[in-house]
C-alpha cells in the first residue's frame, strides 16, 4: 500500500476522539445500508455518529424531475438519491445538505428546476469521464463518514404492473396514481450489481434495508441479482429491515407491516432479513395531513412475521411523525446489533 494511502487510513482511524459516540461500537462496525431517497438519508445522518465504516448502496432507478432530465441528456445513472446520501454522511451535514439540495427556480432558462448537487455530480462525471469517479471524489471532498455508491452502473427503469393489468415504465409514475400496485420489475434484466457494492455487502457486520419508499427505493435494489445474492450469502451479518413509520399516499396506502414484509419476500423469493424494526409510538395524524393526504403511522403487535423477528421501538420523529427520528433510529439499530452480533 502506498504511503499516502497508509496515512489516509491512519487518519481516518484517529480523527474521532475517544468520547465520540462512534466508539460505542469501537468505531469499526462495518455497515451496509441499502435504499434511497429521504429515508436512507435520514438513516445515514443518525448512523454516522456510531460508525466510520458505512457503505450506502443507493437505488438509481429514479427518473423524475431534475434527475430524469440529466439521465436522458448525459446518459448517466440517477444522481438524485446519491446526492442526498452524500449530504447526509458529510462532516457538516446541515451545510452540505443546504448546498447540494439547493434547487434553481423552475422559471429560469438555465438550470431551471435542477438541484446544485445533481449538476455537480453530472459535471464531475463529464470531467472525469466516469460517474463512479465523480461520486468517489465528492465523498472525499465533503469528508463523508463512509462510502456512497450506486447499486448498479447500468441504465435501469422500473416497470410498474398494476392490479388492473395496466403497466407504466418509470419510477416517477409511482406517485402519480392511486391504482393498486401488483408488482415491479426492472426493464433491464441484464443489469449487473456494482462490484464494490457487492464487496461492501459481503464484508458487512450489519446490513440494513430502509426506511424508504417500498416500491421506489427499497425493492429496486433487491431486484438486482448480485445485490440480492450478496445479502443471502453473508451469514455473519445482523440483517435488519427498517419498516416505515407510515404508509405512503399512493404506493402503500392501506398497507400493514405484514404487507410490507410480504411484498419484499414476493419480489425476492427469499427471506433476506432476520429482524424488522417497527415503530411502536403512534401519532395517527400529522400537521402535514392536508398536504400529504390520509397517511397514518403503522405498527404491529406480532412477534414474528414470515420468519422475521419483530422488534418494536419508539423511533418516530415528534417534529415530523410520518418519518423516523434519525438519532432514535440509529441508537435502536446499534443496540439490536450489539445484542445479536456473532
Short description:
This protein is α/β, with parallel strands linked by helices and 342 residues long.
Tell me about this structure.
The protein is of the alpha/beta class. It has a domain at 21-63 and 147-340: 3-Layer(aba) Sandwich (Rossmann fold). It has 13 helices and eleven strands. The protein has helices spanning 3-14, 37-47, 65-74, 80-89, 93-100, 116-128, 131-141, 195-203, 214-222, 225-233, 257-268, 289-292, 326-340, and strands spanning 31-35, 54-58, 146-150, 158-162, 167-169, 181-186, 206-209, 238-242, 275-279, 304-305, 308-313. Strand 8 (238-242), helix 11 (257-268) and strand 9 (275-279) form a beta-alpha-beta unit. It is globular.
Report the span from N to C terminus: 30 Å
User: How many β-strand runs?
Assistant: 11
The second-level CATH architecture of one domain is 3-Layer(aba) Sandwich
Structural class of the helices, strands and pairings?
alpha/beta
Instruction: Could you tell me the CATH topology label of one domain.
Output: Rossmann fold
Molecular shape: globular
Strand content: 5-15%
> What's the rounded overall pLDDT mean?
88
Helix content: 25-40%
Rg over alpha carbons = 19 Å
Strand order of the largest sheet: 3-2-1-7-8-9-11-10
Q: Provide the CATH top-level class of one domain.
A: Alpha Beta
Strand and helix order: HEHEHHHHHEEEEHEHHEHEHEEH
Amino acid at each position: 500500500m502506498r504511503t499516502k494511502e497508509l496515512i489516509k487510513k491512519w487518519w481516518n482511524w484517529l480523527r474521532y476522539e475517544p468520547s465520540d459516540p462512534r466508539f460505542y461500537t469501537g468505531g469499526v462496525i462495518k455497515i451496509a445500508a441499502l435504499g434511497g431517497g429521504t429515508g436512507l438519508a435520514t438513516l445515514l445522518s443518525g448512523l454516522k455518529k456510531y460508525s466510520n465504516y458505512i457503505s450506502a448502496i443507493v437505488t438509481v432507478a429514479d427518473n423524475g424531475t431534475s434527475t430524469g432530465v440529466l439521465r436522458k441528456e448525459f446518459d448517466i445513472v440517477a444522481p438524485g438519491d446519491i446526492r442526498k446520501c452524500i449530504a447526509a454522511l458529510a462532516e457538516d451535514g446541515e451545510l452540505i445538505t443546504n448546498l447540494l439540495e439547493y434547487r434553481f427556480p423552475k422559471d429560469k432558462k438555465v438550470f431551471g428546476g435542477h438541484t446544485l448537487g445533481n449538476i455537480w455530480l453530472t459535471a464531475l462525471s463529464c470531467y472525469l469521464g466516469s460517474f463512479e469517479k465523480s461520486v468517489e471524489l465528492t465523498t472525499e471532498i465533503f469528508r463523508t463518514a463512509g462510502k456512497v455508491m450506486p447499486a448498479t452502473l447500468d441504465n435501469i427503469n422500473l416497470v410498474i404492473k398494476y392490479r388492473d393489468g395496466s403497466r407504466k415504465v418509470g419510477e416517477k409514475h409511482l406517485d402519480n396514481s392511486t391504482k393498486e400496485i401488483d408488482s415491479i420489475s426492472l426493464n433491464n434484466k441484464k443489469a449487473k450489481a456494482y462490484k464494490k457494492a457487492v464487496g461492501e455487502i459481503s464484508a458487512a457486520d450489519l446490513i440494513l434495508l430502509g426506511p424508504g419508499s417500498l416500491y421506489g427505493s427499497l425493492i429496486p435494489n433487491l431486484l438486482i441479482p448480485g445485490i440480492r445474492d450478496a445479502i443471502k450469502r453473508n451469514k455473519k451479518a445482523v440483517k435488519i429491515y427498517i419498516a416505515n413509520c407510515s404508509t405512503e399516499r399512493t404506493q402503500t396506502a392501506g398497507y400493514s407491516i405484514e404487507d410490507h414484509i410480504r411484498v419484499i419476500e414476493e419480489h425476492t423469493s427469499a427471506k433476506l432479513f432476520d429482524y424488522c424494526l417497527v415503530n411502536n409510538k403512534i401519532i395517527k395524524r400529522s400537521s402535514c395531513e392536508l398536504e400529504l393526504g390520509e397517511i397514518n403511522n403503522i405498527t404491529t403487535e406480532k412477534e414474528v412475521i414470515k420468519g422475521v423477528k419483530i422488534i418494536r421501538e419508539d423511533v418516530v420523529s415528534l417534529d415530523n411523525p410520518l418519518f423516523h427520528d434519525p438519532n432514535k433510529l440509529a441508537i435502536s439499530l446499534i443496540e439490536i446489533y450489539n445484542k445479536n452480533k456473532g
